Amino acid sequence: MQTNLNHKLCEQLGYVFLQPALLQRALTHRSYAPEHNERLEFLGDSVLGCVIANYLYNTFPQLSEGDLSRLRSNLVREDTLVTLAQQLNLGSYLKLGEGERKSSGFRRPSILADAVEALFGAVLLDSGFTAAEKVVLGLYIPYLASVDMQTLGKDAKTLLQEYLQAKRLPLPNYQVIATGGLAHEQSFQVECIIQNLKITTRGTGSSRRNAEQQAALAAYQQLT
Fold first, then answer.
1. Is 45 annotated as catalytic?
2. Is 117 in the active site?
């Protein structure tokens, strides 16, 4: 059964391991055995960063260093890796200790993200950088086709500001209208006011900044 599962995973990756033991190690969490995937994850993290940086540099020659860094940071973060892991149904392939299995470790974002990076590291050791690059891009290029590269990684306040500037409209005002909670558990309620468009939205968060982001997101969604 496990062999069939691994065969399916290799089909999804578009890569067949010359050393199947590397694949097994990439799928092994430290709770399961001493020979686990953490060292492979270390390698895979570096491979991923290099491949994505090179891809962005060559694909988007018009972007500044700051924009390239923003995109790379967003693409290699845990959330994106978890999305890729879910597309692969990677949780069903993982070898977890009993405690992790009982606590649904196969769904835990950190475990899934680490396993994706470990796979990249395993391919690197198995066949070299070119093979690892092919596997990384094989997963990422379809993902990139489904996202907006112009907004990827930008926070709501930045998106709202850029939208208003493009329309030559005044920037919004943010006002704290309420605070509550204890000193170490405060909550803030903020209004985002775009006077010219007669738009007022509210956001709540554990800090003023978080509340402003929520209010800005609500305003941006109204406008777009």
1. yes
2. yes
